[in-house]
Design goal:
The protein is α+β, with helices and mostly antiparallel strands and about 425 residues long. It contains twelve helices and 20 strands.
Amino acid sequence: MNGQSEQAVDGDRRDLVILGGGLVGMTLALAAARHGLSSHVVDRANPSDLTAEGFDGRASAISTASWNLFTNIGLADALESHGCPIAEIAVSDQLKPGEIRFRPGPEEGSLGRMFANRQLRLALFKAAAAEPLIAWHPRAEVIHRERGPHGVAVTLAGGTQLRGSLLVAAEGRASPTRDEAGIGLAKWDYHHRAIIAGLVHERAHDNVAWEIFWPEGPFALLPMLDDAAGRHCSALVWTVSEQDAAGVLKLSDAAFLGEARARMGPLFGEILSVGPRSSYPLGFQHTARIVEDRLALVGDAAHGIHPIAGQGLNLGLRDVGALVEVLAEGARLGLEPGDAQLLARYQRWRGLDSFSVALATDGLTRLFGIPGRTASAVRRLGMGGVERLGPLKTWFMDEARGVSGEVPALMRG
């Protein structure tokens, strides 16, 4: 899985130098290649580790717009059979009456698809390895970054230097490139952790994604494909307080399933088994800017949000669609990818949208975290109002599908 990395030598100048070869970074490289833009992709990880069975039990909700992006860069055939459609999203306050259900019309298709992150990586890495416009450098450590008036340069441990026109930080929340550039960051900790696990259950989920809000945090059940034995499966994302997380992870399978049953009620019948459990901390962060001289931020390097609405990866993929469109249009005008005018347009396009989504998810997290019967009653009253107002429900569904606002060309049907 070394892609074109062995062909890359000192002085191999490409359009982009992308630091971070995860889901967002590699999608960016492939989308850029579709427009004739070349890239170096540098990542510390070993791709074989990232695609190993059991490495990462996480799954991602891929919105309609994000699926369009994958289709338009040639990944649909590799991914189609691995995705579970989301036909409906059900939102409930503690399983009390007054839930709200989002269900698109027949002409609109699904609300998205659920994929195991491993399957997304496998498809992305295979496509990248076959793309000559991508020079892939896995298991590589960056020791120096340089941005100047005529280009960018990155030096790897071992001395190899990679050159390009634009540096892109796709390294995730702890992006050293962003920090080195001195880009300001607003951040806070929710003091919660997300517990991730796969569940096997008696009843079919009917392609419904459930978001059940409890005072201690949301409890999400996301539809996955049946396993090889034909058993019904869902991905669980259970938010618990930081102080309780270690104890929840140490529970026996029987005790863990007992706690899960108490929070999901009879929705899926008997819970038959639970897979390996993992967790990660939850926090909010958002940068003051997403560009600097010859530098652009994408994905979690620019904005890290709560998983409450399943929009984290989709937000990063919208960055990809917008940045590639801006750079491709610039290339047609004879502008190089690092041109300040192009970066200014990317900032205007993505800055407000990503900030709005980040604030909305933070607000939902706080709203549904208010304890007490009165708060619950008010929330359910509000959900009932949304349920009855067709245009408002449609707006929420369009947001979830990623088809509202200025949608990048690669993310249109």
